[in-house]
């Protein structure tokens, strides 16, 4: 999708905020702007249309475009815009809606029969073939028979929590903190879960060995790259060591590589690549890199687990959406997917860098933060006395949305001073402003020693 029109919108908005373009002022013509920005007239028209939708400008037939009269309120609207570090969906501006719409339309034609019937419970074979090819780019070499298409990776996780494993063990080991969807699943199924601290340096491998040896672990659930919520990634050496220990103690690993496609480091391997024995179950989601509404993910299981997994899957939903599968297959086949990944890789890397630059510049010295190279999430570690809950509450009053990571821990590991920031749905030009506000909030709570019931602006 063309993002040039966004840049043009930002320039015009900037001119309105700075007062360069006042109420009632006429904007330069479409032709002038297309020359100035070296783009097509259509791009300018699109930017104008979007600005009209936002009620920033209006058109006068046969005359041109003008800045709306309420420039003061326009200005404060922009200043008070929602800054959303909370939403975990993908960046809307980076989504290939139009391209994907073509694929969906084609899929309705091509897979009519599958829409009138229940389809393969393991997922379309033709899609699995495409995925096998695609996964090779991630150093995941496998065969279609080991792939199961699932209705989002959350479904696969939930099934893995509930189903029996060949090692006959029943307990689950989780990094602390971890993706809260798995904690929920473990609790709903009344499974016993153990935790192991994940830090900037990885996990304590001696501790991991101790837990593997003594606690009847069925599987270790890990998010090796761009961890949710921490943002950390393991080194290849750490991944190798974890796989070796799993092999030694007959423990399975559920490797949730939900953002692996965004990794800017071409040398970073998935754990799956180090697995000689089929103990690593690899999972990929299409929610963050494509659309969560598709409800598509893929799980790669060892041969001996496929039939049990499919039985559990069949009892959950028969099969995953035929329309989504068909469209994704077409999207992969015609090369659109690779082009899209290339584009979003740059975008998320840039946004994450902006977020870190802002953290570096504005957060107080007693506040630290993780430094992911890309992905969605960065964690801010607040000074001990400040609770994330307080910050969420305060920032909400400033129209800034952030997440408290407390629920991402098992109860006995809980820490209450971590804020999760998701960069995906924050507009680039608001990232710095958002972090500045977060920093101001920390300072205020500090100064007031826990008196946090007033909004930061009223305290200033
Ligand atoms: C780490 C991780 N794994 C899995 C999921 C589930 O994704 P989905 O079921 O949409 O594929 C999420 C969703 O946020 C996630 O953050």
TrEMBL record:
GO terms for molecular function: DNA binding; DNA-binding transcription factor activity; pyridoxal phosphate binding; transaminase activity. Pfam families: Aminotran_1_2, GntR. Keywords: Aminotransferase, DNA-binding, Pyridoxal phosphate, Transcription, Transcription regulation, Transferase. SMART domains: HTH_GNTR (SM00345). The keyword Transcription regulation applies. Signal peptide: none annotated. It comes from the Bacteria. Its cofactor is pyridoxal 5'-phosphate. Residues 2-70 form the HTH gntR-type domain. In the C-terminal section; belongs to the class-I pyridoxal-phosphate-dependent aminotransferase family. This is DNA-binding transcriptional MocR family regulator. It comes from Paenibacillus methanolicus.
